[in-house]
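Worked problem 6 (solution included).
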Amino acid sequence: MTVVPLGTVSLNRRLNCPTALDEYIAHLSRVDGGKASLELKRQFSERMKVFFKSMRLKGINTKVIYDFLDWLREHSRRKALSANSIHRYNSDLKQFLNWCVERSYLDVAPRFVKAKPQLNRRPHFDNKDYNKLTRYLREFVKSDHPRTVRDRTMLVNYVLILANTGIRVGTTNTRSVSRRPSA
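Solution. The predicted structure is:
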């Protein structure tokens, strides 16, 4: 087998998966160096190496991809993967296979159904919840110590601003409120 130098298109079509994965991660390190997503892709590629250890890239087809996803489920801690994990694995796998096509390691990337991510929405905040919140906040402020009353009053005002405007907590942490002089 000939050695595949990094950064060149290989004419060797019998490249095995672990070698291609190493080259892919080296490529991502040069392009996306230092990003958090790179570490997730590295971890995923290590799992892929275990499953595809002796397989050639040409041997990857749709059935093998579904077997790989089943293998990931079996070897996970809970013996199940969340919809978001499956979506991320599919995206990373598809990105790797498309990279292999660009490098002429594969003629065509195998097609497989991409799972849609599950939306984890919070329940709506209705009038009943709002009334409960304001009722408990009035009792929450009551205290014997003046500093505690002051701190709790500021917290109550903060919570009411969030509840009344619909602004997100992260947005309030990054915004600063300035007082404008009145004319």
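Discussion: Confidence is low (pLDDT under 50) at residues 1-12.
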